[in-house]
Fold:
Amino acid sequence: MHALRPAADWFQRHPRLALALLLGLPLGWMVVVYLGSLGALLVQSFWSLDDYTGQVVRSFSLGSYAQLFSPANRDIVLRSAGMATAVTLAAAVLAFPLAYYMTFRASRRARLLLYLAVVIPLWSSYLVRVYAWKLILAKEGVLSWFVAHLGLDGALQAVLGLPGIGGPSLSLSSIGIFLAFLYVWLPFMILPLQAALERVPRNLLDASSDLGAAPGQTFRRVVLPLALPGVVAGSIFTFSLTLGDFVVPSVLGNSSYFIGQAVLVHQGTSGNLPLAAAFTVVPMLIMGVYLIVARRMGAFNAL
Amino acid sequence: MTNAAPAAAFEQATRRYGAVLAVDHLDLEIRDGEFFTFLGPSGSGKTTCLRLLAGFEQPDAGRVLLAGVDVTGVPPYQRDVNTVFQDYALFPHLSVEENVGYGLMIRRVPVDERKRRVAEALDRVRLGSYGARKPSQLSGGQRQRVAMARALINRPRLLLLDEPLGALDLKLRQELQVELKQLQREVGITFAYVTHDQEEALSMSDRIAVFREGRVEQVGTPSAVYEHPATEFVAGFVGTSNILRGEAAERLLGRQGAYALRPEKIVLGEAGAAPPPGQRAFPGRVVHAVYLGLSTRYLVAIDGGTTLSAVEQNAGSARDAEDAAGRAVTAMFDPAHARPLAR
Amino acid sequence: MRSDPGTPARSSVSLKSSFPRKRESIFSRAGPTAPRGWGLTLAAAATLAFLHIPFLVILLYCFTTDDASYTFPPPGLTLEWFGAAWQRQDLWRALALSLRVGLTATAVALVLGTLAALAVYRSRFFGREAVSFLLLIPIALPGIVTGIALRSSMGMLEIPYSFWTIVIGHATFCVVVVYNNALARLRRTSGSLIEASMDLGADAFQTFRHVVLPNLGSALLAGGMLAFALSFDEIIVTTFTAGTGQQTLPIWIYSQLTRPRDRPVTNVVAVFVVAVTFLPILLAHRLSARDHD
Structure:
C-alpha cells in the first residue's frame, strides 16, 4: 500500500478529528489573524495618546472616543456621512434607468451584454478608475474643455465658489470627490437593483394595468416599492464603501478630511493609533445599524 | 452452491436516521454464489442494507459480516466488495479505460497486466472499442456496462448493485436483465441486487428478500415468494392479489383467517356455468374491464358483496373491454390457490 | 386574474380593446408599465457612458506628448511613454513586489480555502454557516477596518512591517474567494464519485488525489486567478501593512498621483494594471460559469 495509508485509516476511524484538522488551519488563521486583529483594534480604541510624551498609554480610557466629539472630528464624521448619503442617492437615481432598461426593455442577448458592460468596470483596477477622474477633472482637462466650449465657465466658477462642496478646482473639490465615488461604486448599485427588478412578477404589472392604472401609476405603486429592497441592498455597498474610503478624498480632495483620511493620518505621522482605531469604529457602528435596518427592509433577500 | 460461509450476513443489524429506523434488527444471510435480490418500495431500507455491506454506513447496533468476518468499522476500501451505483458514478475526468482500471491502478497492479485485464473486462461487456472515450460520450446503457466492468474487474467476493437498471428504458432494461443474469452465472460471484421492480426481481434472482419499513417480510425463491406469499404486503407488492379475510373468506373458502388469491387463478365463465371438479364457482357481474393488450383485467362483483380482481390472457380474439362491463359471469377457482397469510 | 407570468403582452392588448374605458397597455415586452419613448433609453445610455468613458480617457492620455499637465485635447500623440515606463527601475521593483505578494498570497489562499471548502462540504457540523460568514468578513468590511485592525495587532505584537505582513493581509481576504469557488464546484460534484473511489480501494488521500482534485482543478484555477487579481489591485489594506519604502504597484501609482513628473508614465502603468487584473478575472469567470448558474 502507499505510505499514507495508516494515516488515512486513522482519519477514517476518527472522522471528527479529521474534520478538526481540515478546518483547523483556515479557521485558526481567520480567528487568530483576523478576529484577533479586530479585537486588537477594539482594545486600541480604548487606549489613548498622552499628548506630552507622545506615547500610547495602555490603560482603559474613553479619551480617544471623547476626542471624536471635538468640532473638527465631528465635522469629519458628518462630512463623510453626508458624502456617503449623497453618493448613495445619486447612484440610485443613475442606476434606475439602466437597471429598468435591462430588465424590461432589453432583449435576452442585449441583457447579457449590458450585464457584462456593467460588471467589466468592476473587474478593472479600483485605483485606476479613481485616477481617471483626476485626469478628467484637471484644470485643463476633458471636463473643463467641454465646460468652456459650452459656455458654462461662469456657472462652474460659481459652483466651485460654494462653501463645503466647492474648492480651488474641480479636481480638488467635494464635487470631484462626489463624482469619483459615484463612478466607482455605481455598478454595486446597478446589480442588486437589476436583480430585484427581475424578480418583480410580470403578472403583477398586468394586474395593475387591468385594474385601471396608467403606466406611470403602475410604476410608482407597483414597481418602485418592489424594487426598493434592491435599492437598499445596493445602498449598503455604496454607503459603506464611501464611508471608509481614503483614496478618493486623497486624490481629489483638499484639506477637509474624511474618515478614511483621518484614520490614515492619525495612525501614521502622529502615531495616534488609538484615535485612528476609534475613528474606524465609527463606520463600523454606522454600518451595523444600517445593516439592521436594511435587513428589516428585506434587502438581504435582494443580494 | 458450496458449503462456504455465507457471502454476507446481517445479525440484528440496525441503522437509524434520527428517529427513523431504516434497518430494523435485521437477520439475513446471503449465500455464496447466489443472485440475491433486495426487493421493496422506496424507503424500505434495501439501499441502506447495501450501503452497510459496502461500508458507506455503519450499523448503530448489531453486526454486519462478510464471508463470516465481522466488518463493523472496516472502511469501504478494505472490504472485498464492489458496488455498481445507481447513477453509475463514472469518473468524468477519466476515460472508459481509466475508469475500469481504477481499482487496479490504486492497488498498484503493473501497467501491462492492468491494460490486459481492462481489455478483457471491456470485451466481456461488449465495449471493447470504447476504451478511449469519456463517460459523457456514452449512452445510459453503455455507462451501465462500464460501471459493471469497473466493479467486476477487481474480482470481488460480493458485488452490490443498487438499482443499476433504473435509469434505462423498458426494452433496454429487459435486455440487460438477461445479460446480468448470464454474467453472474459465468463469473460465479455473489450478487446482491436492489430493486423496487418486482418483475426484475422475479426474473433474475435465486432468492428474494421482500422489504418493508426496515424489516424483511419474506425471504425465498421467486416462485416461493410469488406462489406462497407470507403476508398481505408481499401478496400485494409482488404481483397483485385478492385478499380474502373474515366474512369474505368464510363465504368464498369456508375457512377462517386471511388468504391471498392471485387474479390469474380465477377463470370467468358464462353465467350459470358449472365449475370443474374440485373448484368453486360464484355468480357475479363485471364491474369494469381494462384491456392490457396481452391480457384483460376484470373487476367482478360477486353476489353477496365481495369484489374480485381477475386476469385473463387474450388468447383468442380481443374481447372488447367495454362490452364486458355489466356482463353476468361465473367466477371459478381452485380453493387450494388461496394461500394462507401470516399477517 | 387571467394572466400567468408567461403570458405575452399581446394577449393583454387584445383583451384591453374590449374595455375602451381603461387605459391601453403598451405593446412591448414590458407590458403596462413602460414609459414610452426614448427618455429611458437615453438615460440608460448616459449611465453606461458614465461607466465606461473614464477608462478611455486614461487610454488616450497614454499617448499625449504633454508630460506636465492633463491638457485636453492632447497637444500631440507619441509612444515614448511606453519606453519611459520600461526604463523606470522603481516601477520594476514595485511590479516585482506586487507579483511576489500576489503569488504568495494566492498560494496561501488556495491552501486555506480548499481545506475549508472540503471540511464544510464533507461534514454536517454545527457552525457550518458561521465558517462561511467568518471567511466573508474581511472582504465585506471596509478596507480601512481590516487595515487598521492588522496594524493594531501587528503593532501590539511588535511585528515589523515587511513582505510577510503584506501577504498576511492579502491572504486573509483572498481566502473567501477560493473557498467560494471550491465549494460551488464541490457541491456540483456527485457524492457517489467519492464513494465509488473508496469502493474501488482508494482511501481518503488517494481519493483526493485521483478524483477530488482533478474535479476541483478549474475551480481552483478560477479562484486563484480571482485572488491574484484582488491582491494585485489592492491598495487600502496594503497601505497599512507595508513597511516604509515598500511599494506595490498600486502604492506606486498612488504615490505618483501627487507628483507632476512623468504623468503619462503613470497612465501607461494604469492601463497595464487594468490589463493584468482584468484578464484573470475574465478567465476566472468563464472557467466557473457553470458552477454559478
